[in-house]
Design brief:
This protein is an alpha/beta fold. The chain folds into two domains: 3-18 and 106-229, 3-Layer(aba) Sandwich (Rossmann fold), CATH 3.40.50.1000; 21-102, Four Helix Bundle (Hemerythrin (Met), subunit A) (Up-down Bundle). It has helices spanning 21-38, 40-45, 48-61, 69-83, 90-102, 111-118, 149-152, 160-169, 183-192, 221-229; strands at 8-12, 123-128, 145-148, 176-180, 196-200, 216-218. It has a six-stranded parallel β-sheet, sandwiched between helices. Helix 1 runs antiparallel to helix 5 and helix 4 crosses helix 5 (90-102). The longest helix is centred in the N-terminal third of the chain and has 18 residues, at 21-38.
C-alpha cells in the first residue's frame, strides 16, 4: 500500500485531539454546582466520587447500554433526583449543563492546522467512545463525518464503530488508517479490523510490551501529515 491509496482517516477525539481530564472535571463541577441550586439535598449527600460510583453501578446493571455515556449520566442523575424527592426529568436540564462544558475543549496547537491540511486529501471521520460533539467544538467543520459509540451501539475496542466508518466512506479496511492515543482501544482494535493504525503518544509513554508496535508513533498530527506526505504510508 502507498500513501495515495489511503482514502479514509478515522481519528479519536479525547486525549488525541485535546486533553480530556480537565474538560470532564469542569463539566462535572458545573453539574454539581447546578445540583446545589436545584437539588440541594442531593448535592449535600454526594460528591464527584460518589456520583462516579453510582454511574459505575448503573453501568454494571445495564451493560447493554454502558457504551452510551450520555444515557448513563442522564439515567444516573434521574435515579438520584427521584431518590431524593426531586423530579427525575430535571436530569435533562442537568445534561444540558454537562454538555455545554463537555464541549468546551481546547485542541492541542497542532490539531486544527493539521486537520485542515489532511481534509484536503483524505476523508476524515472523528470517532469516540465519549460524548463530545465535534460540531459544538472549536473543530467544527473540519471532519467530513463523526461517529460515537452510542451511535454505533458499542464502544471501542468492539469493531462496530470502525465498520460504520468504513461503510460510510465506502472503502475497504486496507484503505483506512486509524489515529488514536490508546494502544488497545485505538491501535490494536483498528488493526483487528484490518486497518492500519498510528499511535498518538503526546505524553511519551512506553508502548505496552504485549502489543505489536504500531505502524507509526507520533507526538502530534504534524508528524502524521508529513509522514503521509512523504509517501511513508506503506502500511
Amino acid at each position: 500500500m502507498t500513501a495515495t491509496t489511503i482514502r479514509l482517516l478515522t481519528i479519536d477525539l479525547d486525549d488525541t485531539l485535546w486533553p480530556c481530564a480537565p474538560v470532564i472535571r469542569a463539566a462535572e463541577d458545573a453539574v454539581l454546582a447546578w445540583l446545589a441550586a436545584v437539588a440541594p439535598r442531593l448535592a449535600a449527600a454526594h460528591d464527584h466520587e460518589s456520583l462516579r460510583r453510582h454511574r459505575r453501578a448503573l453501568m454494571a446493571r445495564h451493560p447493554h447500554l454502558a457504551h452510551d455515556l450520555s444515557w448513563v449520566r442522564r439515567a444516573a442523575l434521574a435515579e438520584l433526583l427521584d431518590e431524593f424527592g426531586y423530579p427525575a426529568d430535571l436530569a435533562n436540564d442537568g445534561m444540558v449543563v454537562f454538555s455545554e462544558y463537555r464541549n468546551k475543549v481546547e485542541p492541542y496547537e497542532d490539531v486544527a492546522p493539521a486537520l485542515h491540511a489532511l481534509a484536503m486529501q483524505y476523508r476524515l471521520v472523528s470517532m469516540t467512545n465519549g460524548n463530545a460533539d465535534v460540531a459544538r467544538s472549536p473543530l467544527v467543520g473540519l471532519f467530513h463525518h463523526s461517529l460515537t459509540a452510542a451511535e454505533a451501539g458499542a464502544a471501542k475496542p468492539h469493531p462496530a464503530i470502525f465498520r460504520r466508518a468504513l461503510e460510510w466512506a465506502g472503502v475497504r479496511a486496507e484503505q483506512a488508517l486509524h489515529v488514536g492515543d490508546d494502544p488497545e482501544l485505538d491501535v490494536a482494535a483498528a488493526r483487528r479490523c484490518g486497518m492500519a493504525a498510528v499511535w498518538v503518544n503526546r505524553g511519551h509513554r512506553a508502548w505496552p510490551a504485549a502489543l505489536e508496535p504500531p505502524a507509526l508513533t507520533v507526538t502530534d498530527l504534524h508528524q502524521l501529515r508529513h509522514w503521509l506526505a512523504r509517501g511513508k504510508g506503506a502500511l
